[in-house]
């Protein structure tokens, strides 16, 4: 067995076969990851034999579910090196960034980068921040030298993708934190693409906020987290009102629960939180250093094979984390994706919710292959075979 096949966890993932029982070469993990059986079982139990509401029940099932829900918060916190009271459960990274953009009390200029996902651009615009944009280096990384030159005391926030969902490039989070702090700003890292494939420790990064989604981390949809430093969360007013986020409600005056409950109005995503924690445990057991090495090898094989084709343009640096974006001369990415689908190979084609990056690159779309714990070199080989067939079809 090859290195990548030894690591591959295909057997844990019931979703990785077609309706006809053939292998499905799933290369769209950056959009959303397949779910291992342990996560499916955890959510199924939470929805079935263990199900009850949290925080309010006087009966034992509800008390147990409350313990499970709060244990999930601890698991998610320790997964990124944070503390339990610093994790706000949200609908996903998108909602986490919206929460921060709306609720952060000291609004001003925010420094974003040219490679950001729309969910790390539009919330800042909607919440009235003045947006500045840090350029990229030639090989597709956020240019931190340029960031240093751009940052001023008017900047209250720096918000960068820890790993780009298009280019796979990683930012040096610690240096970004130092640059932000040097002008009195805070750093948000959008960790959507980092948490499934890199060891993440918010204390070592010295960032102030970290946003991510469970569904890219082998967990359920509909849940994610905003991690924030306790003192910063404590200074943020609530952004949605309702049950569970209050201390005392009156028609004349209402007071609020402390963070993180203050930001979790309404009945929370109980089942999803349990599944989120199961996914963190699953990934922790395998180890993100090992996952990172595994995906780096698959990226190397893919970039080498595509780089040998003289009609292929590769985007992003060679050390991209788990993600390879490319274009084939004369073949639209959507056509490539459709033909690959006939071969049971699933890739992503489009702007990947990063239209400003597409504009900067002078293109409208890329084809993107992205890897996960279950990917192996058979998937890479199927991709390359499918690309060769597509090129034959297009002459
Ligand atoms: N940021 C990045 C870098 C992403 O890749 C994504 C998902 N494609 C998001 C933010 C948004 O995540 P979600 O849709 O799960 O809220």
TrEMBL record:
Pfam families: Aminotran_5
Catalyzed reactions: (sulfur carrier)-H + L-cysteine = (sulfur carrier)-SH + L-alanine
One MF annotation (Gene Ontology) recorded for this entry: pyridoxal phosphate binding
Keyword Acyltransferase in record: no
SUPFAM superfamilies, A to Z: PLP-dependent transferases
Class of this enzyme: transferase
Entry keyword set: Pyridoxal phosphate, Transferase
GO biological process per UniProt: cysteine metabolic process
Top-level taxon in the UniProt lineage: Bacteria
Cofactor(s) this protein cannot do without: pyridoxal 5'-phosphate
Keyword Transmembrane listed: no
InterPro entries: Aminotrans_V_dom, Aminotrans_V_PyrdxlP_BS, Cys_dSase_SufS, PyrdxlP-dep_Trfase, PyrdxlP-dep_Trfase_major, PyrdxlP-dep_Trfase_small
Its EC number(s): 2.8.1.7
Residue span, Aminotransferase class V domain: 25-383
Function: Catalyzes the removal of elemental sulfur and selenium atoms from L-cysteine, L-cystine, L-selenocysteine, and L-selenocystine to produce L-alanine.
Stored NCBIfam families: sufS
Family: Belongs to the class-V pyridoxal-phosphate-dependent aminotransferase family. Csd subfamily.
Name this protein carries in UniProt: Cysteine desulfurase
Organism expressing this protein natively: Aurantiacibacter rhizosphaerae
UniProt lineage: Bacteria, Pseudomonadati, Pseudomonadota, Alphaproteobacteria, Sphingomonadales
Gene from which the chain derives: sufS
């Amino acid at each position: 067995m090859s290195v990548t096949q030894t690591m591959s966890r295909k057997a844990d993932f019931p979703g990785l076969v077609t309706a006809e029982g053939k292998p499905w070469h799933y290369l769209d993990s950056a959009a959303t990851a397949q779910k291992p059986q342990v996560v499916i079982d955890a959510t199924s139990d939470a929805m079935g034999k263990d199900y009850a509401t949290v925080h309010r029940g006087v009966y034992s099932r509800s008390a147990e579910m409350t313990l499970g829900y709060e244990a999930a918060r601890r698991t998610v916190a320790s997964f990124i090196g944070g503390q339990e009271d610093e994790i706000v459960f949200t609908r996903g990274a998108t909602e986490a960034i919206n929460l921060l953009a709306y609720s952060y009390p000291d609004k001003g200029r925010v420094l974003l980068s040219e490679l950001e996902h729309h969910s790390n651009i539009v919330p800042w615009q909607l919440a009235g921040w003045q947006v500045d944009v840090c350029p990229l280096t030639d090989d597709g990384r956020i240019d931190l030298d340029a960031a240093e030159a751009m940052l001023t005391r008017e900047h209250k926030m720096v918000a960068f993708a820890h790993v780009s969902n298009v280019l796979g490039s990683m930012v040096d989070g610690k240096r970004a934190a130092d640059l932000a702090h040097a002008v009195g700003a805070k750093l948000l890292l959008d960790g959507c693409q980092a948490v499934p494939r890199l060891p993440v420790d918010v204390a070592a990064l010295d960032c102030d906020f970290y946003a991510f989604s469970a569904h890219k981390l082998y967990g359920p949809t509909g849940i994610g987290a905003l991690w924030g430093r306790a003192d910063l969360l404590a200074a943020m007013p609530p952004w949605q009102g309702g049950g569970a986020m209050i201390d005392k409600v009156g028609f004349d005056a209402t007071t609020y629960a402390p963070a993180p409950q203050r930001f979790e109005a309404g009945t929370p995503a109980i089942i999803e939180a349990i599944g989120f924690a199961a996914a963190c445990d699953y990934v922790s057991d395998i180890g993100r250093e090992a996952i990172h090495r595994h995906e780096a090898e698959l990226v190397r094989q893919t970039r080498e094979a595509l780089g040998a084709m003289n009609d292929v343009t590769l985007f992003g640096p060679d050390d991209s984390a788990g993600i390879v974006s490319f274009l084939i001369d004369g073949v639209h990415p959507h056509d490539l994706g459709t033909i690959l689908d006939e071969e049971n190979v699933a890739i992503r084609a489009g702007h990947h919710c990063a239209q400003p990056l597409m504009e900067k690159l002078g293109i409208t779309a890329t084809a993107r292959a992205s890897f996960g714990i279950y990917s192996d070199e058979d998937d890479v080989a199927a991709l390359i075979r499918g690309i060769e067939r597509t090129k034959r079809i297009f002459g």
